[in-house]
């Protein structure tokens, strides 16, 4: 299971990188076509969709790599048991927040699909399609937060971070 989850986080991070390149391609193409006097409708919208996809798909990989911003000043000032308890409490709060984000992201996709929402831009893309990457990213992030919370309950240190170790 550990191998599957780590692969899931890496694949999610890899997809985020692909969508980041998609932002670059859309922006460069938009600039180039504007200089040539050609209009390709929706390029700005696709750059935005790619940027949102990159951000949400990167959440889990960034979290599991220990790269999210954390305030460790209080944790490091506490004794090991106190720091572990505070860390578990923070992770439980993160589970609630990530769970809500996950729930409402999925609900947004389902509502957009049910109401046939489309982009108001030139592309007229059904909005559930780009919103799907947000929902997938938040689901994977929720899994990562639960995974990290369970690891901490087992007394294991952060996955990739070397800042805080509990013994």
Automatic annotation (TrEMBL):
Alphabetized GO MF terms: transmembrane transporter activity
Q: Where in the cell is it found?
A: Cell inner membrane
Record-level GO cellular component terms:
plasma membrane
* UniProt membrane topology term: Multi-pass membrane protein
Primary location class: membrane
Give start and end of each Tripartite ATP-independent periplasmic transporters DctQ component domain.
Answer: 24-154
Keyword Transcription regulation among UniProt keywords: no
Segments crossing the lipid bilayer: 12-33, 45-63, 84-106, 126-146
User: What does the subunit section of this Swiss-Prot or TrEMBL entry state?
Assistant: The complex comprises the extracytoplasmic solute receptor protein and the two transmembrane proteins.
Family label: Belongs to the TRAP transporter small permease family.
Q: PANTHER family in the record, alphabetically?
A: 2,3-DIKETO-L-GULONATE TRAP TRANSPORTER SMALL PERMEASE PROTEIN YIAM (PTHR35011)
Q: What is this protein called?
A: TRAP transporter small permease protein
